[in-house]
Amino acid sequence: MNKDTSHINSLENEAIYIIREVAAQFERPVLLFSGGKDSITLVRLAVKAFYPAKIPFPLMHIDTGHNFPETIEFRDRLVKELGLELIVRHVQDSIDEGKVKEESGKYSSRNQLQTTTLLDAIEEFKFDACIGGARRDEEKARAKERIFSVRDDFGQWDEKNQRPELFDMLNGQIELGQNVRVFPISNWTELDVWSYIEKENIEIPSIYFAHTRATFLRDGLIWSAEDDVVYREDDEEVVDRMVRFRTVGDMSCTAAVLSDATDIKTVVREIRESSISERGARIDDKRSEAAMEKRKQQGYF
Amino acid sequence: MEVLKIATAGSVDDGKSTLIGRILYDTKSLTTDKLEAIESKSKQLGYDYLDFSLATDGLVAEREQGITIDVAHIYFSTAKKSYIIADTPGHVEYTRNMVTGASTSQASIILIDARKGVIEQTNRHFFINNLLRIKDIVVAINKMDLVDYSEEIYNGIKADFEELMSKRDYQDQKITFIPVSALKGDNVVHKSEKMPWYKGEALLEHLEQLDKADIFNVGTPRFPVQYVIRPKTDEFHDFRGYAGKVYGGNLSVGDDVIVFPSKTRSKIKDIYFYDEKYETASRRSSVTITLEDDINVSRGDMIVKEGDIPTIDKQFTANVCWMDSNQLTPGAKYVVQHGVNKVLAKVDRINHKIHPDYSGIEKDVTGLGVNDIASVTFKLNKPIFYDQFKNHRTNGSFILIDTQSNSTVGAGFIQ
User: Fold this and answer.
1) In chain A, which end has fewer C-beta atoms inside a 10 angstrom radius, N or C?
2) Measured between CB atoms, does B288 come within 8 Å of chain A?
3) A62-72 mean pLDDT
4) Complex ipTM, two decimals?
5) Does B42 touch chain A if contact means CB atoms closer than 8 Å?
6) Considering only CA atoms, which of B332, B335, B320 is closest in space to residue B381?
7) Is B324 left (phi over 0), alpha (psi -120 to 50) or beta?
8) How far is A96 from chain B (nearest CA, A)?
9) How many domains in chain A?
């Protein structure tokens, strides 16, 4: 009977409360869905929040075109099973329309370009609240993010002028043109998300589990060599390794980790014992120490 | 596993970020890549020690100024508990962040620089922690290494602080003094050998044994309706569920309830958590309730147990912490957000300003500036259903929203 006895249950209760506030306070909310474990967790929480009714808002995927194929397959199946509405907007379209320019070179990625596509989609559908799966433990600048984070007409985050958030009262009042980014799993750690996936028996894409993959090494990180999305020098040797991914963002900037964890139980154990933080495997945060904060100011998730 | 949320308060250079960094380091919560980043940054800045404050200072602007300017949340866990630290700044101009951090915390750490002792800032930190009725406070007397680990200095600071305690309003607050050196790691996670005269626990040992039951006051159940769930499917054709979070105490199937503001009576029929049915919904759980009778309930209404009803009124007096650069003045209108309920409010009068350094009150006040704390009486355009803050932390608090900017401009604690 008691849903409040354990840490993970209290996080779940908090997230459900936040998601319900979004549905109650906004006209046109949307759940930003990447196909990653954090957004899959959000969908699960939203299902629980509105049962026995359906989730009262659509999902939206900003497709970089650099997705792991397993993720897209998974996404389409999930949406079908739950009878949800899915909106997809493509970074490739923004490139074709000349709104953004593709990066080139060794470290090129479409992670930055997503921002333009996202902001255009928000304007197109007049979304006033975008639910995202960001967590405060991911990165230092994220640690200061609010649960309801107001963005201006340009999607920008003014980190020095954030609304104070007191108790659990969420102030969603905004002006026309503004929108709010909502982070229901702000207070979860990576381990919490994995523990929840295990506890709830939530299905996730196969690339999160250990599998054999053609890979190459660069800067001490392991990269997939199976697709031509990741730029590879001729002298970077391709070797089959047993790996899994800890995040499934843009393939071009998501590195793999060596792993034998083929099921959720062993993944949770590995994470518990692990000594590399999750974003350590994402190259775009390493570009500069203030990378995340700069991207956030520009309207990134 | 339990979760404990802790707010930290200290003045600039009291070593708050260093203390948190030290806890993370000694509990092995810093991952290899984060530790490497701290090592290389410390070296780049020319330090011959590891600057743990770099683990928490997140924003570019504050790195440039070398100070923390906003609330940051830091996560770590031990075998026993999960911890969330709300790292809040200590300068005069950022009191609002401290109130914010403390508003969701169960315990608080107040830092004092052993070389400086109790200063005006310490009074302010203590005042705010007392105003928000934080149950457990740790007074960490830091930089003991810089005063030769002197027992005499520690005792002097303790005596000064105890004098402050005599002035507090909320007397049941538990206060524990611990001499530490965040930089050297004395009495933070590990008990120090440099202070044999100190017989108490190290900081983390103390936090580990804080009793959760001690932290949450059990009050009366309040169920503000967040959202009405009407599936309108064949299977759930007549389903009308009230989604919300239970505050204060438990609600059970069969309880006689009253719904405000209509004052309609009914009984709890079912309590759902997703597709499971519960006999009892406990405090802070997000459930969906159905009632025996088909009555009209909407968002902002409140379901309470018969015989245990809140105050219903169109006016109230509260201690307000003002957080905006525009002044609060008598006659001004704001939105009061009380839980999930919103009403329009007019400032009837400012009764008096309260000096948070315990130097008394000030009458004949014409307006409140940022970081002012005052007793204010409001008139509302419709009644709300409240409890006094001292009896009910959730149902006795509210935020003020500016009708022009939509920003959260104040927090209030109903008297």
Assistant:
1) N
2) yes
3) 88
4) 0.90
5) no
6) B335
7) beta
8) 34
9) 2
